[in-house]
Amino acid sequence: MFSAIVREFLLPLLVFLLLRSLLRSLFAALRPAPRAAQPQQAVQSGGVLKKDPVCGTYVSTTTAVTRTVDGELVYFCSRECAEKFRDAE
Ligand SMILES: [Zn+2]
Predict the structure, then answer these.
(1) What is the CA radius of gyration of the chain?
(2) How close is the Cα of 80 to the center of ligand 1, in Å?
(3) Which of 7, 34, 69, 76 has a CB 3.0–4.6 Å from the CB of 81, allowing a cystine?
(4) What distance in Å separates the CA atoms of residue 35 and residue 27, rounded to the nearest whole number?
């Protein structure tokens, strides 16, 4: 009786689980895991917020336009603002 249950139910289940985990690892190897891509995006859109001295907008250091002024890095929301800042100097 017990061996019949094993043969009819547990064995196919084990095979199914084994195949599923195999397929999963196969898919994970074939394409880059989306989980790995998310932290990169977070870093890109994240970073430290700096205030644009021209328009007052807060910009991320990772996406901002930067200019070195008196040896210090200044962050701007756009090239326009950076040029306005330079003109005002
Ligand atoms: Zn600006």
Answers:
(1) 28
(2) 7
(3) 76
(4) 14
| Separation of CA 70 and ligand 1 centre (Å) | 19
What distance in angstroms lies between residue 43's CA and the mean position of ligand 1's atoms? Answer: 22
Q: How confident is the model at residue 41 (pLDDT cuts 50, 70, 90)?
A: very low
Q: Is the pTM above the cut of 0.70?
A: no
Are 53 and 85 a contacting pair, CB within 8 Å? Answer: yes
**Ligand 1 midpoint to CA 26 (Å):** 47
Topology of the domain comprising 47-89: Ribosomal Protein L24e; Chain: T; (2.30.170)
Per-residue pLDDT tens digits for 47-79: 889 999 999 999 999 999 999 989 999 999 999
